[in-house]
Design goal:
With 362 residues, this protein is an alpha/beta fold. The chain has two domains: 3-141 and 225-281, 3-Layer(bba) Sandwich (FAD/NAD(P)-binding domain); 144-224, D-Amino Acid Oxidase, Chain A, domain 2. It has helices at 11-22, 56-63, 108-118, 195-209, 241-244, 255-271, 275-299, 301-315, 318-325, 330-342, and strands at 3-7, 26-31, 43-48, 72-74, 76-80, 86-90, 96-101, 122-125, 134-135, 144-152, 158-162, 172-178, 181-188, 215-224, 233-234, 237-239. The chain has a seven-stranded mixed beta sheet, sandwiched between helices. A six-stranded mixed beta sheet has the order 8-2-1-9-16-15. Helix 2 (56-63) runs parallel beside helix 6 (255-271). The model is unreliable at 345-362 (pLDDT under 50).
Length: 362
Amino acid sequence: MKKITIAGAGPSGLCAAISLARAGLQVQVQEKEKNAGTRWVGSFQCLENTSCDEDFLEMLERIGIKKDFYCKPLYGVEVIDGKGASHPFSSARPLWYLIRRGNEKGMLDYSLKKQAIKTGVKLKFGTQAKDANILATGPSFAEGIAREMVFETNAKDQFLLLLDNTIAPKGYAYLLIADKTATLCVAIMKDFSGINKYFELARSKLAQISPFNVKNPKYKTNFVSFHIPSSAKRDSSLYVGEAAGFQDFVFGFGLRYAFLSGYLAAKSIIDGSDYDSLWKKEFASRLELGILNRALYEFGGDSAFANLISQAEKEKDFGKFLHSLSKPTLAKGFLTPFAKHLLGRNNSCNHAANCAWRPKKR
């Protein structure tokens, strides 16, 4: 029986492990932390559901992952702009699915760990794999940083998204409340040393908009990195999830890419198909569009944001509007190289040597 080693017990690594074990392979997952989900403290996260036609829950069923964790559809969001104006949006189809991250029952990481064990995967915590077939080790450096507070509250269920460059430089802040639990988070793409200051600014602003009480708060700071690799293979290893740089460039929605890349890496091992061809066919075009959307978000200024809001309000259904942003067109393809230039990615980067940001050697 072929033995497969996976480094990292996050969603991408465990998804790959589950698929491989179901195919009859012997799988061991090695994780340097003491448990799965230790990066999180019960935090709310959103499973993005507008970038493609396939519903996220349908995708989970397709790749063989059971939805036995907390998962609540979100049909609306209230966007607050830099001037404090409120813009409520809604959709007939879920915009996101709300899940919780951590190692307690009902949370995504706990569920995936249990599913992996049930399929026969061997989990080894507190160790690092030196030679792994699949690398699912998460981000290795910070291009964005987020600080969050998870707490209990009696406030009403709501989703507030704050887009204000003075509070979240080139990023965003949000307040998510559901079933008496809440996550308040600020994510920034510059001035990382000021993260605590920006967190307090975001907390104050969101409390002014919609007051909430706080009980039993837990705090956590995490970072993200994102890029589009020219190849997600290096030596004999396949890179998945954030280890490969698979992350939405605008808001950091990476769980769809985590699940899919883990599943596709497993598929390539099972049937001998080319991993790079699989992930590029599945979602490379959406990653490319993320570069353009990030450039527009960072450099468009208040006028570009106002225009975006105006377009969204004309569409009526916010889900359809967000879906249109993820559809490739000739014009978007033409503008993407300029977006890379604006983001300062043409000449150098901090990524691995096979990153697509690096110019090709002639």
